Amino acid sequence: MPKAIWWIRRDLRLADNPALCAAFALGTVIPVFIRDPHLLERTPARRQAFLFAGLRALEAGLRARGGHLTVRTGEAGETLSGLMAETGAETVWAEEDYTPYARARDEKVARTFPLRLTAGQTVHPPQSVLKADRSPYTVFTPYSRAWKAMLPPRITLLPAPARLDSSAYPSEELPDPAPYRQALFPASEAEARRRLDAFLDKRISAYGEARNRMDLDGTSSLSPYIRFGMISLRQAASGALEVMRQASNSAAEKSAETWLNELIWREFYVAILYHFPAVLRASFRPDLRSIAWAADPSGLEAWKMGQTGYPVVDAAMRQLLQTGWMHNRARMITASFLVKDLLVDWRLGERWFMQNLLDGDPAANNGGWQWTAGTGTDAAPYFRVFNPILQGQKFDPLGEAVRRWLPELANVPVQYIHTPWTMPVELQTHLGCVIGRDYPAPIIQHDSARQRILHVYGAASRKG
Fold it and tell me: Strand, helix or coil at 94?
């Protein structure tokens, strides 16, 4: 039978995998994962561990179906050429990736041998959602309308092949992810499917109300799994659409649509990076490329370590350090604080998130940072500056998230939890939480910082 290599990249799943199904339709499938040194040296240990744990789970699924995973290290083109000669494979199938590095790599590989790319990372490939004049959308709302108009009545999901009989070839051992494994995000397709089903069964109906609360389990917590393709966006979108169709009331339907819109935001940022790759290096808005950023290494370090003196910011940053994940509302709050309060270049924050997030994705991370910084497409206006005190009071009203990640504030009364520096000194001493000793005083005054950012951004906008 003809043989085809399934080149696994960001699609660590067997169900709804167009690249796998295309290779399987041709004959014998040879699943291959290549440890690309260029990518690995840019991938932090925590995210590598999640990736390798997911690959181990995928390997178990392949073996249960009679298949074998072949792991090699090297430059993609050379490694695949060697494998084709070794196995007698005639073609290589892979899910298309849209980052600048992935596109350049695939173009180079395709000049050497038959590389066939399929859709699968998104519901709609970025080059397919275009305006009537074939130019890309740069505003979310019209993009989302066009995206929804392209949906079929039902998204047809591809089943996982029942059998994948293939020969075993010499393979490297996958690294042991144990040193970085943590219970919050077990890495596997089965876990991703379990989370999606649990979310669709109950929490999605309240998502519209609960999604911004940092103290509630109101989100899907699927982002690391989507990042590595342990579940497809087609599966997620299909589930959301089905909930919308079967919703018993308009509130539940609206809530499911809100989550669907979050999935569309993810695809929108993929499209922006695809059509405007320069956003990885500079602000999308030309008029805000000349902002006079502050050189504040001590402020940046305090932000990274969760030592700013603003509890909602510090709790989120310590959650990131400890778990590799952060609530989306917290991402906006912390990003706003770094950029708008400390006047630190958004690219430094973007880089720190990529170094620490399990779900670190170039398109989504860049899009989120530029939105909050006010420099991107569909950006928040530059004069929108999140007040970290009010954000904490609104989205963690009892301070439960703060207490979880800042144990030094565990006994602080609710009325002071987001402004602990306002506690009477006697109470600070009694609670063993003296500001400036047990927990830092605010490193900057928000009101004055807001006036500074408005002046600096305004000057840059006028200059641009």
Answer: strand
Two tokens at 438? 């047990």
- Look at strands 115-118 and 91-95 and give their pairing: parallel
Q: Domain ranges in the chain?
A: 3-120, 122-157+189-275, 286-463
Q: Is 366 labeled as catalytic in the residue annotation? A: no
Q: Is 33 in a helix, a strand, or coil?
A: strand
CATH class of 286-463: mainly alpha
pLDDT of residue 297: 97
Assess whether 265 carries a catalytic annotation. Answer: yes
Render 243-305 in DSSP notation, one character per residue. HHHH-SSHHHHHHHHHHHHHHHHHHHHHHHHHH-GGGGTS-SSGGGS-------HHHHHHHHH
Please provide residue 302's backbone torsions phi and psi, each rounded to the nearest 5 degrees: -60, -40
The architecture CATH gives domain 3-120: 3-Layer(aba) Sandwich (3.40)
Q: What is the pLDDT of residues 172-228, one digit of tens each?
A: 999 887 777 767 899 999 999 999 999 999 999 999 999 999 999 999 999 999 999
Q: What is the mean pLDDT of residues 392-421?
A: 98
The whole-angstrom separation of Cα 105 and Cα 10 is 14
Write out the two tokens for 389: 């005190």
Q: 111-122 burial, b if ≥16 CB within 10 A, otherwise e? A: eebebbbbebbb
Q: Catalytic site residue 346?
A: yes
Rounded CA separation 212/202 (Å): 17
Q: What is the pLDDT of residues 424-435, one digit of tens each?
A: 999 999 999 999
In Å, how far from its chain's centre is CA 33? Answer: 22
Strand partners of residue 136:
130
* Catalytic-role residue among 75, 90, 293, 421: 293
> 352 catalytic, yes or no?
no
Active-site option among 6, 7, 369, 371: 369
Q: Which of 93, 147, 259, 265 is catalytic?
A: 265
Q: How far apart are CA 50 and CA 179, in angstroms?
A: 11
Q: Fold for 122-157+189-275, please state it.
A: 1.25.40
| Catalytic annotation, pick one of 346, 350, 387, 405 | 346
- How far is the C-alpha of 22 from the C-alpha of 18, rounded, in Å? 6
405 is catalytic: no
325 annotated active-site: no
Catalytic residue among 90, 262, 400, 421: 262
